[in-house]
Amino acid sequence: MGNIHHINLAGLDLNLLVVFDALISEGSVTRAGERVGLSQPATSNALARLRRLTQDELFLRTPAGLRPTPRALALAQQLNPALRQIQGALLEDTSFDPATSDRLFAIGMSDYVELTLLPQLMQRVQALAPGVTLQVRSGDRQTLFALLDSGAIDLACGLFPEVVPWHQEQLLFQDAYLCAARLDHPSLGDKLSLDTYLALSHLLISVREDRVGRVDNLLAKQNLQRRVALSIPHFLAAPFVLAQTNLIATLACRVAVAFNQTQPLKLLPLPFELEGFSVAMRWHRSSQNSPASQWLRWLIADVAQTL
Predict the structure, then answer these.
(1) Which of 46, 51, 79, 166 has a CA between 20 and 30 Å from the CA of residue 19?
(2) Structure confidence by residue, pLDDT tens digits, 230-271
(3) For residues 289 and 295, is the Cβ–Cβ distance under 8 A?
(4) Rounded distance, CA 86 to CA 10, Å?
(5) Which ranges of 95-252 would DSSP assign to H, the alpha helix?
(6) With contact defined as beta carbons under 8 Å apart, do 18 and 84 qualify?
């Protein structure tokens, strides 16, 4: 790391960080210079100063252009959010009027969150901000975090165990699990025993597209296992498959209740303890004080309260 901890900020040319950001994005001294409005010699000079400052090569020349070193990549991860925050502070819209706004908000969501939150969220958006548009982006946690860090989404809603220093988070709601099957399932009465549960074939919704869910991990600890006859990556087909087969599924309560509105299902308590989960929304520190983002967060939190 060298003596980076003792840098005097007043003596540091902050434009160097802007050049560094452009070099990371463009992978070329010439293009980075064009992006920030510097000549090629001036950009090369800035790179030389950055190298002295960080005591690292930062970029290696390859036939494919400049390749960042591990130190440069680590630095970029920390700097990108900070530069966006500065930009946000300078360009900040001081006012946001939902009733007249035609802003597009991009929100990262899993299909679980889409199913539980979107119908009521959209209802409220139409009532309060008829000109506002929502764009939902999907992906696993790492994808959503990358979208959040690059500014491609305004916020993300989902299950986020890991802490990221430049993210803020707020709990939205909690959910538990139950068992769902078709209404006239031949093997199910009003109660579900563990023996029956293990004897039946299961439908699993697995975003990871594998055949192991939380239930399987829990059963394995007790040396038990169930037969997953069908594993699917999305919720879309699940209620229709359940309605037309003797498969059973262990679902989040809110999902099961939503399915029950389209297909008549039998919903039963699980024959074992399975811990529930919390859904949170996460946003980038740089949008903490943006009136538009604050409104969106308020609205989502408010909808979550009524679920």
Answers:
(1) 166
(2) 999 989 999 999 999 999 999 999 999 999 998 899 999 999
(3) no
(4) 16
(5) 111-128, 141-150, 194-199, 214-221, 238-244
(6) no
Q: Which domains occur in the chain, in start order?
A: 4-91 (1.10.10.10), 104-169+280-306 (3.40.190.10), 177-275 (3.40.190.10)
Phi, psi for 222 (deg, rounded to 5): -105, 20
Which tokens belong to 89? 């502070």
What is the distance between the alpha carbons of residues 76 and 81, in angstroms, rounded to a whole number? 9
Whole-number CA gyration radius for the chain: 25
Tens of pLDDT, residue by residue over 14-53, are: 888 888 988 988 888 988 888 888 888 999 999 999 999 8
Query: Which of 23, 124, 106, 2 has the alpha carbon at shortest distance from 66?
Result: 23
In sequence order, the 6+-apart residues with CB closer than 8 A to the CB of 141 are 158, 159, 160, 162
If you average pLDDT over every residue of the chain, what do you get?
Answer: 90
List Cα–Cα distances, 71 to 51, 75, 150, 198, 223, in angstroms.
Answer: 11, 6, 19, 51, 46
Q: Tell me whether strands 104-109 and 133-137 are parallel, antiparallel or unpaired.
A: parallel
Return the percentage of the chain with pLDDT > 90, whole number.
60
Cβ-in-10-Å burial (0-12, 13-18, 19+) of 306 comes to exposed
The pair of three-digit structure tokens given for residue 236, joined into one six-digit string: 């879309």
Spatial contact of 204 and 213, defined as CB atoms under 8 Å apart: yes
User: pTM (2 decimals)?
Assistant: 0.71
Distance CA 153, CA 284 (A): 9
Cα–Cα dist 29/239, whole Å = 55
DSSP code, position 11: G
The predicted-structure confidence for 173-185, as pLDDT tens digits, reads as follows: 999 999 999 999 9
